[in-house]
Amino acid sequence: MLFHFALVDDLISKEEFEKRVEEKIEECGDLVDEPTAAMLVLGELGRQHVKIRGLSGKSSLFSFFGKVIDKTDPKEFDRKDGEKGWVATLLVGDETGTTRVVLWDEKAAAVMDIEKGEVLEIIGRHPGKSTQEIYALALRKSGCEITCSLPANSAAAVSLSSGPVDLDAILIAREEPRSFNRRDGSTGEMTEVVIGDTGGTARVVAWVPDLFRDILPGSPVHISGAKPDRRGAGKSYSLDDNSSVTVTDRVITVPFTPIGSVSEQGIWSITGEIKEVREPRSFTSRDGTASWVRNIIMSDGKDEINVVLWGGKALIHVQPGDTAEVYHATARPGRFRGIDLGVGRGSSFRLPKEESRPIVFEGTIITGPGCTFIDNGTERYLIEGNLQHGTDVQVTGVLSGNRITPLDIRPVELTSEALLLQVRKCIEELDT
Questions:
Q1: φ/ψ (deg, to 5) at 239
Q2: Crossing angle for the helix pair 14-27 and 34-44, nearest 10 degrees?
Q3: Which one, 20, 179, 200, 402, has the greatest CB density within 10 A?
Q4: Pairing status of strand 348-350 against strand 371-375
């Protein structure tokens, strides 16, 4: 009973709680035991147990059940005051998700008596503003059953190990390589991709862009040497010189979450019909660069959700009635109501009805606020990649809708006919 009283000790006294539990047992005709009656009283006081997906709520204290997926042994550390401390971590899950539970000092020793597959009843709180883990205030073993399983090599599989893993997944989206500055002052290149399998989706950062350079979205791949990265929300991996990516012939399907089941936090993939489209709006990002944002409303026939497209994704041509797919998007409470599902870097937005086809296209690179075009005087396409404004290039790649994903880019000299077309187009635009 004391275990459950810890959840409401700020609301009523211990004596009052015990009295309510006894009254609940009598009210139910002795058909419930003391723990069950205590949980009924908690519910009446607004402190009922939540699913793991509900741990993103605003409450300062949570109670929930979770099946143990993984655990670490207790580890000794030195505190700032010179005293010794102990810490251990549990990874627990239910049918709605997973979370890390951190045990400190005497509670850390409890992991020696906890086995994988057991179900625990946990009372805990978030550390500061973080919602990625729970600090356990109390926990005990429970006899209830929880369904929670993911294939060991799933892109969405979770564990507490930081060692490299192998993944079989489908390449959903691939960003063009971009440069970055190392701590020693040198520069390098990296690229981000989104992958998925039957267990969900994950973000992959490849510090060796060539690993994905010739692999098109939609290709099933086998990834070796993927290092888990647990610093942010959702599943994330990094690849380095010891990693490899090969195309396979496996058939892989990525599941979607019903829109009505999307909560205010977390990473989600949805599909549905576009019901409303707003015009893209330009803005200046924190680093001073120009970009775009656009809001659309999507529906799966039962529920609707606001989807926020960022950067180049905001310029993809969409219209009401289109069917769209969103992968690995971040959910947040809406500015006015409901939920906003953000689709930016590390996410994917696509229109499945679009047919992709090979293309060889020559034109001039035109950079605008947050986007890049290639224009030959009569046709214009969005193009991915960091390309210099005003250069004339020949692009060999894949055309999807109004966007070219380049596989090869070579500088060219435009013919006099192409130049004349561009001049005429400029004159027509000035006249209008």
A1: -120, 145
A2: 110
A3: 200
A4: unpaired
Phi, psi of 409 (to 5 degrees): -130, 125
Q: To which H or E segment does residue 67 belong?
A: strand 62-71
pLDDT digits (tens, 9 = 90+) for 167-195: 999 999 988 788 888 778 888 889 999 99
Give me the half-sphere count of Cα atoms (radius 13 Å) on the Cβ side of residue 183. Answer: 0
> Which CATH architecture best describes the domain 2-142?
Beta Barrel (2.40)
DSSP count for the chain of H helices, then E strands: 4, 25
pTM, two decimals, is 0.65
CATH code for 356-431?
Answer: 2.40.50.140
Let me know how long the chain is: 432
**Distance of CA 20 to CAs 7, 24, 34, Å?**
14, 6, 11
Q: 97, exposed or middle or buried, with CB in 10 Å at 0-12, 13-18, 19+?
A: buried
Q: Which amino acid is at 425?
A: K
Q: What does the DSSP assignment read for 220-255?
A: EEEEEEEEE--SSSS-EEEE-TT-EEEE--------
